[in-house]
Structure formats: structure tokens, C-alpha cells
Specification:
The complex is a heterodimer of chains A (416) and B (490).
Chain A (H helix, E strand, L loop, with lengths): L2 E9 L3 H12 L5 E4 L15 E3 L8 E2 H14 L3 E3 L2 E6 L4 E6 L3 E12 L3 E3 L2 H4 L9 E3 H9 L8 E5 L3 H12 L3 E7 L8 H8 L6 E3 L1 E7 L6 E6 L12 E4 L2 E4 L3 E3 L2 H5 L4 E2 L4 E2 L12 E3 L10 H19 L10 E5 L3 E5 L2 E2 L5 E7 L6 E5 L3 E5 L8 E5 L13 E8 L1
Helix pairs in contact in A: 1-2, 1-8, 4-5, 5-6
Chain B lengths: L10 E10 L3 H10 L6 E4 L16 E2 L10 H7 L1 H12 L3 E10 L5 H13 L6 E4 H7 L9 E11 L1 H14 L3 E3 L4 E6 L5 E5 L2 E10 L5 H7 L8 E10 L10 E7 L2 E7 L5 E9 L10 H14 L8 E11 L9 E4 L6 E5 L4 H18 L25 H10 L6 E3 L4 E2 H9 L5 H8 L12 H12 L23
Parallel strand pairs in B: 1-2, 1-10, 2-7, 4-12, 10-17
Antiparallel strand pairs in B: 3-6, 4-6, 5-6, 8-9, 9-10, 11-14, 11-15, 12-13, 13-14, 16-17, 18-19
Helix pairs in contact in B: 1-6, 1-9, 3-9, 11-13
Classes of the chains: A alpha/beta (416), B alpha+beta (490).
Chain lengths: 416, 490
Amino acid sequence: MKRDSLELAVIGSGPAGLAAAVKARQEGIKNLVVFERDERPGGILRQCIHSGFGLEKFNEELTGPEYANRYIKMAGDHGIDIELNSTVLELDKDRSIRVVSEKKGVRDYACNAIILAMGCRERTRGSLDIPGTRPAGIFTAGQAQRLINIEGLVPGREVVILGSGDIGMIMARRLTLEGAKVKAVLEILPYTNGLIRNEIQCLRDFNIPLMLEHTVAKVHGEYRLEGVTIAQVDHRRNPIEKTERFRSCETLVLSVGLIPENELSKTGGVLIDPRSNGPYVDELMETSVPGLFACGNVLHVNDMADNVSLEGELAAEGARLRITGQRSVSDQMVDLKAGLGISQIVPQRCSKKQDVWLNLRVKKPMGKIKVKVGDIRQKTFVCARPAEMVRLKIPKKAFEALGPDITTLQVSCEEA
Amino acid sequence: MNSDVLVQDGYLEEYDVVVIGAGIIGSMIARELSRFQIRGALIDKEPFPGFGVTKSGMAQIHSTDFCPPGTLKGKLCLDAPERFKRLADQLDVTYKEVDELWLALDPSQIANLEAAKERGEGHGATGYEIIDAKKIRELEPHVTEKAVAALYIRGLGVIHPAEWSFALTENAVQNNIEPHFDTSVLNIQKTEKGKYRVLTSKGSFNTNFIVNAAGLFADEIAWMVQDHHIRLTLKKGSVAIFDKSVSHLVRHMIFGTFSESHSQNVAPTAHGNLILGIHYTKTENKNDTSVEREGLGKIIKLGKELVPELSERDIITTFSGIMAANTMTNNGDFYIQPSEHAPGVIHVIAGAPGLTAAPGIAELVVGMLADAGMDVKEIKEFNEKRRGWPRFSTARLDKQKEMITQNPKYGHIICRCEKVSEGEITKAIHRGASTLDAVKHVTRAGMGRCQGGVCEPMVLGLLSKGLGIPIEKVTKKGKESFVTEGVMGK
């Protein structure tokens, strides 16, 4: 099939993809297209009508759609082509993509660079193995959010929420504001799995009971959900039988984790880090396949949209260097390895040629910690929780202290 | 499926034959009956064909070596793959050829394989081969190194049974069998004229002959015609489905050991996932399709024993199905018999492997009806062909382009995991898929790794539009299974 040529294809028009496209255009990339499968640009931000976005990027507090609209406007001002209702079906190692849409049918593009910005998907009941029946009335938090905020539909009136991820807590508030009774938010861990501000603003301020170390042991109801058995869990996170009790509800909302959506990346041969579930990248977000870049939640699940956009801009810079032939595969790369106390780290390698923004997550809630990057950089943080990302910059200068034979740096954290 | 046109309150019509149950066997029988000059009805309590025990099994067309010598089921399974292949072509549905490897995990188990080979050959099967560990690794590099030998049987297959029941029903309807879904049989009475009156939730059917293919409910139907000796022994089987990213691990139907509490089996599905089973538990409740935590642990253990790389991380869903054990006969055979008390009533109590034997059972039952006096004059215009609709994800590039040219909605992907387009979903709804689950089973929208997380709200909208009903009336699986409470502020 005849292929059209593009300098840059951006897959996804959420906060990562749009920021990448705008930055790439500002840096002089002309022949670029953003592909979006939804009918409007903005990605998941379209349904995040709560505030809390933009504090870093725009110095003001915006809602999700407002934040997205800033970028949509910038993209419009720059004349960036966003192709809507367009699904990328295949991605090849040779940087070609196959796209389908109603308007244009099936088309192939050969690209000099591709930025992957497809975001993430939610874990489902199936991946959790919640026992019981299969009635209507069980939603993932994002699905419930879309039903209410985009489709204008009410999922249900009596709700139990399993999991204390950010969207789950935000949906607890949202459902309450819509007149539903949120009976409880259950969290299997001894601590919440979202931002502290959401725990306060979404649960505590609305008197929604939070039950830590609890889970749904069973689902009941043949047609529509009739209730759930909730139970306390033991140290191995298994339900304790004698603590089981029935709670009636016709709606169960699951907020039990997000998974970077890398099925397409894998078809392009991109290597995936099992810790982050996203591609291995360097400091300019280039994956294991030269010319393929990744940013935002497809790379690792972020806690803030602002950071997602920053990653998009880094990817755009990497793509520009690649397109203009200024970036070559370096044999001088240093691997960054998640060490003691660290569950995941992005980027996983760097070139030593410029500043590196390191994103990491700790394994368990900690007080004051000291994060060390080998012997070249350390920084103290007042507290760290798994739900909140820790960021630190390794200035280019710090690499000067590194001997040429050092090819790996351990990133670790300890109580300070 | 939409049968409102045909059914009104107080409905009473005369039929030659009524088939109760539109599972794989009932729909196969209805399709076979549609060859003849008769008036026939196919009744099911669910809104869509194949939604009882049919949709929740392993979906495999088995070899005959599982069947004890001299059994009817051994005979009916023998040519099953050929029958299914022929039907797949006629009905435009998926049949995927898959070979079987029954593993011996230690030398003591080799005798079981030899016995099975002998059993199969006793039924007339040929080509069975016992292979060594080296050959096993060549065929299936990811199976356990403990496998010392295997029974290798070629030319079997897998299907998606709900899709098949739907296609069979459609073909039967094309040839004038009347479908009555969402219709529960409440009682069966004898009329003065020596006929039967089948009383249902939607009206009554007067008929000369009845086929009881009600699956798990066949006992209750039998009691309605005083056949109280018919009793079912239920067991629940739980299975898991894996993400397509690990489908490369298994290419054959792989079996291990069997016991009261399990059949160790992992295999590809018709649509390219892996299915792993089966953990059995006893149950008394026909609606108890819940999956237990303990059972899940056991399933995963069974799988890892066969293919160590299988991981619970890659499970996208789990489900259970209730089946009737073959306890109506002494040797575990099918019970397919005319009623002892009610002439013209045929009971079909199959149990395993009912799916495999379904085409053979259908012919057998038609023979029994003829013996009982049903007039079996073939219609001239019998149309054995049923056409499905184009599937975007499996079509070749030129076909994909043609599809979109003809209907641009084929270019609008709704289910991104399985690449199902709006065109296909709208088509399925138009053809009778009236619930979220029905759309899921015939189009695969919602069958993928996100389990409908993304496409479900969109499918809801398409159902509401296609069925012409308010969105709050759209259900997951009929009756009271409403998905939402409707538009906010109303």
C-alpha cells in the first residue's frame, strides 16, 4: 500500500500528546499529525471535570477540560492537524503506522519519528479475581466518570467503591454530589492509594467512610447488583472470614489501578519495563526502538497531568533531534536502576549529555527520606508515599564526576 | 433476539413441534428441523440464543477417546470435526482447527494415554499417535519439562458457542422456524385432542411434538410431562481467560490429569485468547455461576503445572458454568430418549461432550421425531446458507477498505482491544443482539483486555438507538439487569 510521509506522528491527544505536538511545532517540525481515536481531543482530561490541574504548568488551578483546552487552543493556533475518530491499528519497527477512520478509511504512514501518548487503561474485575456473580452495576471508576461527566447518565444510587485510587476517591465525591449514597470506600492496603489532597477533599469533607485493609469478598445479584460481602484482610491480603458482612448496594465502582496501554508499542518492538509497565526510555523519552518516543501514562502512571505534559515536551525535543539527524545512538549510555526502597523509575537510562528529570515511586509510605543516585546526586524529601511520584533533577554537571567505566547507577532511598 | 412481532399476550397457535432451549443443542435441532414441511417454534427463557450452559464451557470439539466403549456419545463424537467444519462454512461462523496434546507428566501416566488411544480407535478413530518428550517440545515449546509423553490427536477444533447458537437460530428462522426468546416455559398440559399445550410467560403453544433441550432445566421440563425419573446431577466448572499477549504460549488443546474436582486443560479459544480450566465443585443451584476465590487458586495451579509461564497477572476474566453430569445412564452416556409417559416428547440430556456431539444429536432427534410419527417431508427451498456480517479486525486490507467504502461506520473503531467497529455492532443489534452481553458475544466488543471499560458506554448508546428504547432500559443480559438509571436530572 502507498504510504504517506510524516516527519512526526503523535498517537493520542491527551495532555502528553498535545504538549508534545505543540512543542514539536514550536521547534520547527512542520509535517506532523496527531491521531486521536475519540471524537474530541483532550484524552481522559475531557471527563476529569474536577479542579487541580495546571498549578505547575500554568500557575493556576484549572479543571481537566480547561487544562486540555489550553493545549487544544495552542495546537489550533499552530495549525496542528488533529485527526479525530482515528484509531492506530498497527505500529511497525520501521516507524510506519496504519490508521483507520470513517472519513479516510485505512491509511499507512511512514514517519521519521513517532511519539506514543496513548495513556493507560483501568484494571478490571477480571484482573482482580473478585468472586461472585456477574450482574449489571459494576463499573470501573473511569467508566463511571465517563457515564456521568460525558454521557450525562447516572450509574446508580447506592454505591460501594473498591480501591482508593485518585479516580475512585474523586468519583466518591462526584456520585455524592449527584445524590447517590456512597456507603464506603474500601482499600485493601493499610493506606490510601491516591493523593492526600483527594483523601481530604473527596472523602473526609463529605463524610464518606474509608475502610482500610478491607476488600470485596463476594459480589451478589443475578441481574442487577444487589450487594457485596465486605471483609477485613489479613497480612497476606486475604479476606478474614469472620469479619465478612453484607452491604446492600446496586453499584460497585472499582478504582484498583491503572495499566499503561502498550499493546501498540509492543507491536512496534518496544521493550517494556515490568516495573513501570511502560517502555524503557532515556532522558528524552526515546524507547528501545530508535525514533519511537513515549510520554505520559503510556510510559508510567503519573499522579499529575502537568508532569505528563512536561514529558511530552521532552519527547518532542528528542523527536526533533532524531528527525533533524542530531541524535545518534550513544554508546555512552548510563543505566539507571531502581534499587533499595524504589518500586519504579523513569527514565531507565541517560546519555550524560544533558539534565535528567528522574521520576520514581517508593515501595511503601515513608517519613523523611534521602534519595541517592549512585554517588553523584542526593536529595532529601519530607515524606514519600507510593501514590505520589518523587521527582528530582540530575544536572548534566553531576555526570562529569562519573568515571567513563561506570555504566550503571543505583537509585535508592532510605529514611533520613 | 426480537420476537415481539410474533408473541402477544394470550397468544395461542398450533405447531407441529416446539423445541425448548436454544442452546447449542436446541438451536442445532431447530436448524435441522427447518429442513422439513412443519411448523416449528424455538423457545428460550433468555433474550438471546446460547446464553445458558452453552456459553460457559471450554468450547472445544473433542476427540472421541474420552467416551467409554460402546457409548452413543463415542459414536456421535467421531465425525464431529468434519460436521462442524461443514457447518462453519454454511453458517459463516468461526471454526478454528486445533490439535490435541494429552500429556503424561510422569511415566506412570503413559498407560492412561495408551488406554485412551485404544478407546478412540475402538470407536473407529484413526491417526492417534503417542509422541515423546522431544516431539512435544517441538510442537509446544512452552509446556512443562515434566511432560514425558503425549497422546497427539490432529484435526480437532474450537468454536465460540454463543456465536454458533445465534447463527444456527438465524438459519433456522430463515427457513421458517419461529423464535420465541425471553419466554419461560411454565407448564405443559395435555389437550383433549391428544396434543400438548406449552404454557409460557408469553402465551401458549399447542403442539404435537416437543423436544426438551432445556439443558440445566431439562429435569423441570421433564417433570411437566410426568417423567419424574429424570434427575440432573449438577456440577460447577470454573475457568479463566488470558490476555492475547500470552497466546503464543499454547497452540494445542493441552490436557493433563482428570479427577472428580478437575479437568486439567489449557487451549486457544476461537478468537485467539487462551482458556484455562477446569475446577469443579458440587452445586445444587442452577444459577450459581459465581467464581470462588479458592477455585481460582486451583485453576492457576492446574495451568502452571502444564505451562509454567502462565501467570495470574495475565488473566483478563474468569467465569463459571453449571453443567449436568452424565448420571442418567450407567456408563456415563448421553440420555436421549422419547418420554416414557408422553408420546411425542423427546428428552435430550447430554452433559459432556454435548457441544461436540450437537450436530449428531440433532440428526438423531429428528430421526426419533420421525419414528414418533412426525411428517418429515423436506421443503424444496431449504437454504442451508446463513451469512454473517463482515468483521473488520479479521478482514484483509483490501476487504477492510471495501467495507469502509460501502459503510464508513466500519472505519469507526468502538472496541479498541478487539478492534470492533460501529458498523459491526449496529449490524449485530439490527440482527437481534439486544443486550450488552449479546453484543459482546457476537461481535467481541467488550471481550478484550479492558473488558468493556472503554467501549461499554458507547455500546449502550448504540443499543439505545438501535433498539429505539431509552438508555435506562438497556440491559446487560435481559430482565432487570439495567446498566444505568438513565439521564441525569430525570
